Amino acid sequence: MKWGTACCGSVFVRGRGCIFDLYGALYQELVNFGIRTCGDTDLASEATDQVFVKIWEKRTQLERVENVQSYLITFLKRRMLRLIEKQHKINTALQNVKAEDEWIEMPYEEFVIKVQTNEIIQIRLKEALEKLSFRQKQLVNLKFFEGYSYEKISEITQMSVKTAYNTLYDALKILREELKDI
Predict the structure, then answer these.
(1) What is the pLDDT of residues 46-91, one digit of tens each?
(2) Do residues 27 and 52 make contact, with C-beta atoms less than 8 angstroms apart?
């Protein structure tokens, strides 16, 4: 990146020229960095825009920045994370609304059957989990709910990777047997 602009050391001083020089010199490079980081052109572009807008809005409150490159990259990463979190919340809300619409549109008999079926599945799953040993439950939780790899599970539980794999295999075999007719 071309970070050697004349204004870099005093970029956030109240002067209008330096921020526009910085914007002109670094905007595209920051967008490219954002694209490489998150893989989404629109998100990277929006986040970069927001970074420069925030800097302009807060220019009177910001201190002198010595390492502009590090500052802008960190700011951009945080802004992209916020945008990703916001998008995730919107997607989740839309999925929930869609799921609620399905429940609202179905006839009463289907609704009752679906509720009863869900309750039966929950009861059967709880009963099946009760048949597992403490260690098997722990490994099922770490693997499928926490998303850990076998290597990480072996570190956490202080067992070998092979033992963790075999214990989890046995747990899944029990669950499969108990839940085969659902």
Answers:
(1) 998 888 888 888 877 777 777 888 888 888 889 988 888 888 887 7
(2) yes
Report helix, strand or coil for 96. helix
Paired tokens of 17: 């020229």
Q: Is the pTM of this model over 0.70?
A: no
Cβ 48 vs Cβ 72: under 8 Å: no
The pair of structure tokens assigned to 101 is 């619409």
Cβ-based neighbour number of residue 21 at 10 Å: 16
- The amino acid at residue 81 is L
Encoding tokens for residue 115? 């509720």
The rounded distance, in Å, linking the Cα atoms of 79 and 44 is: 9
Structure-block tokens of residue 131: 């048949």
- Give CA–CA dist 102/153, Å, rounded: 39
Cβ pair 45, 54 in contact under 8 A: no
**DSSP 8-state secondary structure symbol assigned to residue 62:** P
